[in-house]
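REQUEST ID: PR-0412
SUBMITTED BY: lab tech R.K.
PRIORITY: routine
TASK: structure prediction, single protein chain
INPUT:
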Amino acid sequence: MARYTGPRLRILRRLGTELPGLTTKTAARRPNPPGQAAAGKRQFKVSEYGQRLREKQKLRFHYGLTERSLLNFYAKAYRMPGDTGRNLLQLLESRLDNLVWRAGLTRTLPSARQLIGHGNVMMGGHRAKSPGQVLKAGGTFSVREKARNREDLRVTVNAPVLERPANLKVDLDTLTVTVESLLTADQVPFQVDIQKVIEFFAR
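STATUS: complete
OUTPUT:
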């Protein structure tokens, strides 16, 4: 299944939670799920499978992944030592597009992917190849010199959507980011029951 490009607010209403990486909007004005049944305020019991699916979808839509990509991350987390759920969240938080967003360079993850896709993020003196690159502790990246003075970037950098994690050291003059330590599962900026995600993939 391809990456979702439809109405983002609809996803928030369907999942019943805010996903700050997907959009800066909230569903406060229309908290009910989309559809006629929801408009009629009919109540439906969510099955165990439905609960697991909902938690998995939170990860997929927040991080902007395809089903196959998320499954690949799960497989990698499963092979790592330690708790699979925490490993999975740490891997997702270590993606380049997520780190660009968490460093306050863009307002959303789709914007971060666009910045990378247009060749405006540099790693090791070269343009970053993919938004899905996983960085390790000590890794660095920066905004290309020609793009550093873009008005939208400067506005976002000076007023980030979320508070910057202490793990990321940001030079506001050169827009260079150093990953001093990996972001952990506890730093994920939305509520997700990772155990249900693991149960979904392990079924």
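NOTES: The chain has a mean pLDDT of 89.
REVIEWED BY: pending
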